[in-house]
Recover the amino acids of this structure.
């Protein structure tokens, strides 16, 4: 049978009675203050991204198979939803499992509240074209009303 171990009857070491801080801590505090004072001022907030950039990224994620079609459904109107669904099944921007990248986005405004957008999308070694149309609704929300994806040139 083992006996429980008894602790020696000692008391804890006395607590610190000096209320001043050690000099090493003062030096560390001064160094921290110097670093925070040397930091540059915060940059001003960036303006929100343009609707054409947001929609290009949304369509890119859906048409490459990274997101399901219903993820962007509330931003797509009328027959464009059918077009996006049909295109998403084909995953035209998914090449050998590589993630597509946006090379350039441009837009044309035929009238206020309407954008015709074109984008160059890099899919592996090839570039593809993505074109879509945005309309500003009465509720001040942008909706995609037409989508097309250009096939790569046959070589």
């Amino acid at each position: 049978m083992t006996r429980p171990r008894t602790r020696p009857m000692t008391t804890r070491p006395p607590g610190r009675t000096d209320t001043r801080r050690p000099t090493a801590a003062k030096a560390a505090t001064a160094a921290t203050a110097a670093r925070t004072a040397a930091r540059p001022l915060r940059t001003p907030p960036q303006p929100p991204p343009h609707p054409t950039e947001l929609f290009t990224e949304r369509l890119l994620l859906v048409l490459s198979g990274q997101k399901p079609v219903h993820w962007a459904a509330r931003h797509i109107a009328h027959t464009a939803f059918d077009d996006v669904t049909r295109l998403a099944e084909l995953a035209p921007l998914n090449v050998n499992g590589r993630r597509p990248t946006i090379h350039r986005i441009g837009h044309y405004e035929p009238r206020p509240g309407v954008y015709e957008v074109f984008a160059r999308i890099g899919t592996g070694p090839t570039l593809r074209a993505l074109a879509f149309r945005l309309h500003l609704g009465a509720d001040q929300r942008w909706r995609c009303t037409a989508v097309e994806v250009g096939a790569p040139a046959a070589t």
Q: What stands out?
A: The first helix runs from residue 23 to 38.
